[in-house]
Design a protein that fits this description.
Layout (H helix, E strand, L loop, with lengths): L2 E4 L7 H16 L3 E4 L6 H9 L3 E3 L2 H6 L4 E4 L6 H9 L3 E4 L3 H15 L3 E5 L5 H7 L6 E4 L2 H6 L7 E6 L5 H12 L4 E4 L5 H16 L2 E5 L5 H13 L3 E4 L7 H4 L4 E6 L5 H12 L1
Parallel strand pairs: 1-12, 2-3, 2-4, 4-5, 6-7, 6-8, 8-9, 10-11, 10-12
Helix pairs in contact: 9-10
The structure holds FE3-S4 cluster.
FE3-S4 cluster binds next to α1, α5 and α9.
InterPro entries: LytB/IspH (IPR003451)
EC number: 1.17.7.4
Function: Catalyzes the conversion of 1-hydroxy-2-methyl-2-(E)-butenyl 4-diphosphate (HMBPP) into a mixture of isopentenyl diphosphate (IPP) and dimethylallyl diphosphate (DMAPP). Acts in the terminal step of the DOXP/MEP pathway for isoprenoid precursor biosynthesis.
Length: about 280
């Protein structure tokens, strides 16, 4: 019989669950509900919310034009500027920024005020990173790769504070910290990587190592799911990235004796359950 193991850490993390619950709670109250950006990187959930009347605000300009309703900030958080617009337009704010991200905002703001230059290790395009940069009073650098870290060059007397995007890989963070440390700056390093990510990644690695095939469930645009896929693929050649059960070739799976399943932080439980059940048949 085939062994199918579902990772305990698969699916919504605490911050995403809190944000999604906040949207469903607001829908019940009957006000016009808007989210600033998609509440999570998952097409299925976004579709459901759209059907329930939740509207998406996709840019600062659109937000500036909004004069009434409830606006929900997602778990990734936003820059200070966005809070000002919401306040000035008298919108009802529901702040679902993950408390771990809020802590980064507070840290970088304090450290910038203390005169430190902030280095954010993460992806420039990621909304969480863009939100964090908005608390650094234009005194920051985002470093994504070791190459960029090697090229980082500010006067040696610059005081630096290094933080991380919550969802990046710990080894990448360490590598970049090491490169910057060797340059001789006065540095404070605050590891702001979220444990939920680390736990999910460690469990995925272990599970992939022990499985003949590995299934990673999540939206194609979710960076944390992509990372789970990369980690799993490095350990298990037969790793499949799927969005829902429809993408899974169940016949192909039959040839494997052991199958591991994990899912990104924005994958709803019902999708995970469906895949898990189908794999057990
Ligand atoms: Fe928060 Fe960590 Fe999730 S930072 S949104 S609990 S991945």
């Amino acid at each position: 019989m085939r062994k199918v193991v579902l990772a305990k850490s698969a699916g919504f993390c605490f911050g995403v669950k809190r944000a999604v619950d906040a949207v469903y709670d607001e829908i019940k109250k009957g006000d016009e509900v808007y989210t600033y950006g998609p509440i999570i990187h998952n097409e299925e959930v976004i579709k459901d919310l759209k059907e329930k009347g939740v509207r998406l605000i996709e840019s600062e300009e659109e937000l500036k034009a909004l004069r009434e309703g409830t606006i929900i900030i997602r778990s990734h958080g936003v820059s200070e500027r966005i809070y000002d617009i919401i306040k000035n337009n008298n919108l009802h704010l529901v702040d679902a920024t993950c408390p771990f991200v809020l802590k980064i905002h507070k840290t970088v703001k304090e450290q910038t005020e203390n005169g430190r230059h902030i280095i954010i290790v993460g992806s420039k395009k990621h909304p969480e990173v863009q939100g964090i940069t908005g608390w650094c009073v234009n005194n920051y650098t985002v470093l994504e790769t070791k190459e960029e870290a090697k090229n980082f060059d500010l006067p040696l007397e610059t005081h630096i504070c290094i933080v991380a995007q919550t969802t990046i890989n710990y080894n990448n963070f360490q590598d970049i910290v090491e490169i910057i440390s060797k340059k001789g700056y006065d540095i404070i390093v605050i590891n702001t990587i979220c444990n939920a990510t680390k736990e999910r990644q460690t469990e995925a690695r272990e599970l992939a190592k022990a499985s003949d095939a590995m299934i990673v469930i999540g939206d194609m645009h979710s960076s944390n799911t992509q990372k789970l896929y990369d980690i799993s693929k490095a350990e298990c050649e037969n790793t499949y990235y799927i969005q829902t059960l429809k993408d899974l070739d169940l016949d192909r799976l039959k040839s494997f004796r052991s199958v591991g399943i994990t899912a990104g932080a924005s994958t709803p439980n019902n999708i995970i359950k469906e895949v898990h059940t189908a794999c057990q048949k």
